[in-house]
Amino acid sequence: ELNGVQVTDQLKNEIFVITSRRLMEKVVNELHLDVFYSTSSGLRPISLFNIRPFKATFGPSYHGDLSFNVEVREGDELQISNMRLDGEKLDFKRTVTYGTIVPTPGGAFGLDKEVYASEFVGKVITVSRVNKDAAVDYYRNLISAAEYDKEANLITVTMKDINSTRAKDVLTTLLNVYKQDIVEVKNTVASNTAHFIDNRIRLIGGELSNVESKLAQYVVDKLLGQVK
User: Fold this and answer.
1) What pLDDT digit, counting tens, does each position of 3-32 carry?
2) In which element (H, E) is residue 145 found?
3) Cα gap 8→63, rounded to integer Å
4) Positive or negative CA dihedral for 17, 21, 22, 26?
């Protein structure tokens, strides 16, 4: 209500929109959630999100689910190994540096250095890229929404994830795209309404012009004595 949204007691409709595939697809695209990063501390796996040594940037072509290991070395050197495409191991191993475009059987990608890179020297990072549809399904399954207080028109949205920062960013982005969606819907309705009104005005104007022409012709014919 504070954002100008007219809230009704039909919260189930809003819950459906918030948890819809359409909105989650926008979240996945904005946060690049089709790419996963992880490392390990001893035997404990650690999921990485905003704190990582690099960002993997893939080309538009998707050749299948791709995963590989990247050992972060001194001097901006990266060792790529253990590459798999749709679960099948590929004979691919290469040493590159940050920013290099790497052509592989699973598509070309680049590893862009981030500010935390030095903290990961000596670590092995596992990078996994999945189909965006699969990523959308994965994150939708982590999201739940329910009525918190129907009298107050409140909805609680929660997300369960092993990385709390990622969960917070996903929920924040989901809220933002939800608000953008409301604005887009309102703009579409306003645009369609204006278009309808313009069409009706042109149609009525044409009809009035036709009536005026007939009336003028009637008056002329009357004056000329052609109409009794």
Assistant:
1) 555 555 567 888 888 999 999 999 999 999
2) strand 143-149
3) 45
4) positive
Report the distance separating Cα 217 and Cα 214, nearest Å: 5
pLDDT at 131 over 80: yes
Integer CA distances (angstroms), 26 to 33, 64, 74, 165, 224, in order: 10, 21, 37, 19, 71
pTM, entire model:
0.74
Residue 144: its H or E element: strand 143-149
Do 67 and 128 meet the contact criterion of CB atoms below 8 Å apart?
A: yes
* % the chain with pLDDT above 90: 60
12-17's contacts with Cβ under 8 Å and 24+ in sequence apart are: 12/147, 14/155, 15/145, 15/146, 15/147, 15/155, 17/178, 17/181
In 3-state terms, what secondary structure has residue 75?
helix
- Rounded to the nearest 10 degrees, what angle do helices 164-223 and 132-142 cross at? 110
CA neighbor of 53 nearest in space, from 74, 26, 32: 74
Cα separation of the two ends of the chain = 67
* Burial 106-118, CB ≥16 within 10 A → b, else e: bbebbbebeeebe
Residue 196 has pLDDT above 70, yes or no: yes
The pair of three-digit structure tokens given for residue 6, joined into one six-digit string:
């007219």
